[in-house]
Amino acid sequence: MKKLAKYLLGLVLILLLAGWLLLSVFDANQLKKPVLGWLNEHTDIELTVGNLEFNPLHPYTLLAEDVQLGDWFSARKVYVQLASLSPLSGHTRIATLDIIDANIDLDNATELTLPDNLANITLDELTSTNLSLNWQGWEAKGTDITIKHWQPRQDGAWQWWSDFTLNGQLRQLTHPALAMAQISFHGQVTQQQLQLERIQSRLFDGLFDSGLTLDIPRQEITLTAPAFSHNRVQFDELPQLASDWTLLLSRAQFTDVSITSPKLTSNGIKGDIRYLEWQAGGLPDARGQWQADEAVLDWLRLDKHSGELLSSREQLGLSINGQAYEGAFNSELRWIPQQARLDIDSLALQGNKLIWQPGLYWPTPDVRLHKLNISQAELLSLDSELALSILGADLFISDLAWSAGQWRPLSEQARLEASWNEVAFSNLVARQGQAKARLDDTELTIEQLTTEALDGQLSVSGHLGRYAPHPGKLLLEGQALALRPLSRWINGDRGFSGTVNISAALDGDLQQAKSWQGQLAIDGQDIFIEKVGLDSWLKSRLAEDYARARTVDPALAALDLTQSDGFIYQVKLAGPVTQGRWQLDGSALQSVRHLLALRGNVDFAGGWQLQLGAINDAGCRELAIDLTDTWRTPQLTLHQPKLATPCKPWYSGDVLYPNGGLSGPLIDAVRKLGE
C-alpha cells in the first residue's frame, strides 16, 4: 500500500513537471494569427505584431515586438503587465505598460474601437523610452516619460486628458518657429489641463526654466515665472500665434538675450515682463521693462538703452531712453498697427551725431509728432545727391503729422523752432541761424528766419498757402551777400563774384507769376562776370553805324559779348512788381568805362520789354538797346539816336558816371580813339 502511494505521488510529480515543462516551451506566436485576425475583424484596430512572448504560467504578462497600429503608431517593443482582468465587469487594470522606441503621428491617429469587456482601462504606470511624437508641426524626439495613475478609458469612451501625474525628459522638441533640447519636466494633468510645475531646457542656444500650463479645451498656454538666459533668437518672419490660441506670461525674466531678424536686431537684452496676454490677430496686452546693449531697427540704431512696455491689443506703447548716435535720447512712443500709425508723444535728442544714408525712408505712412526736442545735434549726409551737413542744431517741433506725403497740423499749437551753428549745402554755408514757423490748416507762416549766409546777413518772413496755387507773401532782406559761393554752387559756364544787397516784399500765388505784386530791389558792388565783356561790346557798338535802328542777331551779339570778361562797379535794379512784371525805370549799372541805364520791365513768366541806353557824362543816351520777347528767344534792336544841343538827359539816377569813362559825346570820342 505504501509502495502504491509512493508510486502515485511520484506519478503526480512527474505529470506536474511535464506540464510545467510543456507550458514553458509554449509558443504564443501560434495564437498570434487567429487572435489578431479576430481583433482586426471585430475592433477596427488594424494591429500587427512581429513577435509575441507569453507564458501561461504568467498570464498577466506579455511582451510584443515590432508592433504596428494603423499608420500612426509603431514600437520596437511593448511590455504589458496586468494587475487585474475582469472581463465580466468590463474593467481592466494595467500595472505596467512599457513602450520602447515608439513613433506616434497624432495627426493620423484614429479612434480605437474596443469590445465592451474593455470598457474601463486603468494604468498604474506607463513608461516610454526613446519615443518620437508628431502633432500639427510639432516634433518630439528621444522622449522618456513616466505617467502614473491614469484612466484613459471609462464607460466605453476614451478620455485621454483624464487626470494623471507625469515626469520625464525629451532630447529634442522642434517647431517651424521653435527649437528646444535637453528638456526635463514634471507635473500632472488635472481637469484637462497639462500642468508642469517645472520645465527646463536648452532654448535657442540658451536656457529656459518655467512653469507651464496647457489648456487644450480653452486653447491657452500659460508660462509661470519663465526665465530666459543667454538665448540667441533668430527668425526670418515675425512669429505668429496659432489661430484661436492665447499665450499668457507672468513674471518673465530675461538675461543676456539676443534677437536677430531681417528688420530687428538686438543684443544684451535683460529685463522682465510682469504680465502678457497675446491672442492671435492682435498685439499682446503686456507690461514690462528691459535693458539692452544695442538695437537696430531698419536704419535706426540704438546703443545702450532701457525701456518700458505698456501694450494693449489696439496699440503698442513704449518708453525708451539711453544712448544713440554718440548722444542721449528719451522717447514716449505709441504704435497703432490697424492704422499703420506711429505716435511720437515725446522725443528728446541731445548731442547726437546723425547720419543720412542713401535711400533712407520712413517705413510708416502716418506719423504724428506731438513733441520733438533736439539740442546740439549734428547731421551728415552720405547721399551723393544730398550734400548736406548741419552742426550745433537745436530743433523744437510740436503737434505736426506726416501723412499722404505732406505735413499737417494736429492742433493750433503746431509750430517749429530751430537754430544752428552751421548748415552747409554743397558750397553754400549758413551760420548762426534761427527760425520760427507755424502751420495751420491753410498755410505755413514763417515768423522768423535769420542767418549769416553768403558771408552776409539774410532774413526771411512771410506765409505760404498749403494748397495750389499756394497764395503767399514773402519779405526778404539780404545784406552784403557774396556771389562767389553762389557761383561755385551753380558751377555754370560763367563764374562770377561780388556782393549784393537784396530787398523783396512780394505777395501772390506761387504757381501764377502774373499774380505777383510788391517791391523788389537789388544793389550790387564790385561784380566780376566771366565772358561778359560789357565794356568792349558797348565800345564796338558805339563805333559802328546805327543811325537807323537795326535788328541784330542776339546769338551773334552774345558771341561777341563772350570775347572778354566784365567788371561792374555798381548795379541798382529796383522798382515795383505789378502783375508779375518788375518795373525797372530808373535802374542802371556802372562798368569800368560805361554807364548803362535801364527802363521797362522783366516779366517773371519768362519775357522782357527793356530799353537800355549807353549814357554819356551828361546823362544822355547815345546807344539805344531794345530787348524784347522771351528770355530764350529775345529780339535785339540797336539805334544811335541824334543828340539835341543841349541834349535831354535820359538817366538821372543814383548810379554815377564811371571815373574811367569817356568825357563828352561817346560816339565821337570812341571813333576818334579808333582813328
Automatic annotation (TrEMBL):
Name of this protein: AsmA-like C-terminal domain-containing protein
State the organism of origin. Answer: Oceanisphaera ostreae
